[in-house]
Amino acid sequence: MKKQIADLGFEVLITAQQIEERVKTIGAQISEDFKDTVPVLVGVLNGSFLFIADLIKQVSIPCEINFTKLASYYGGTTSTLKIREDIDLTVDIKGRDVLIIEDIVDTGNTAHYLIEKLNLREPASLKLCSLLLKPAALQKKIDELKYVGFEIENEFVVGYGLDYKEMGRNLSDIYKKVG
Ligand code: 5GP
Ligand code: MG
Ligand code: MG
């Protein structure tokens, strides 16, 4: 079914049920991989807020949650290298096992920037979990990317936290742009 968001048309790409199943699997993997430690999950706002909320409920080991806010898209559908830092972590990650939770890795520039920044704080380990990955758009190799929900084509998506012009974050399914 076609959905209009602001001035663009979208259609469903990944259903809420598919997301739910995948989030359960990733949560179980994280619980197993970090069972000998208490990881700090770092949510990257705004786009990952629904993913984090659902994922953390599937993590069955003790963990902490903290947030950072970065903006790398300014309302359009093409990537820009500009990254604005809005909110920093409020936890000291030195010596901690850190898992960054992202909505989407597109060019990889935002993830690369954040990984470099957090590595300066000397965490014991640093890994990345992203709900979505656009392999064809990736400009940087990201060795830290250990968990990926879905690999998608190089197309613009909204829903489940992701926005188009700040709209569509509330949708339960993920939609791709049509036309
Ligand atoms: P990157 O730095 O990897 O190019 O892009 C990272 C950020 O760009 C994401 O966290 C997200 O905010 C935004 N972004 C990239 N691709 C998409 C997309 O298809 N849809 C939406 N809504 N945002 C995207
Ligand atoms: Mg993001
Ligand atoms: Mg955005």
UniProtKB/TrEMBL annotation:
Per its Swiss-Prot or TrEMBL entry, what cofactor is needed?
Answer: Mg(2+)
Entry's localization field: Cytoplasm
Which E.C. number(s) belong to this protein?
A: 2.4.2.8
Spell out the coiled coil positions from the record: none
- Note the Gene3D superfamilies from the entry: 3.40.50.2020
Q: Which reaction does it catalyse?
A: GMP + diphosphate = guanine + 5-phospho-alpha-D-ribose 1-diphosphate; IMP + diphosphate = hypoxanthine + 5-phospho-alpha-D-ribose 1-diphosphate
Q: Which UniProt keywords apply?
A: Cytoplasm, Glycosyltransferase, Magnesium, Metal-binding, Nucleotide-binding, Purine salvage, Transferase
GO BP terms: namely: GMP salvage; guanine salvage; hypoxanthine metabolic process; IMP salvage; purine ribonucleoside salvage
Q: Which domain of life is it from?
A: Bacteria
Transcription as a keyword of this entry, yes or no, is: no
Protein name, UniProt field: Hypoxanthine phosphoribosyltransferase
Source organism of the structure: Mucilaginibacter gossypiicola
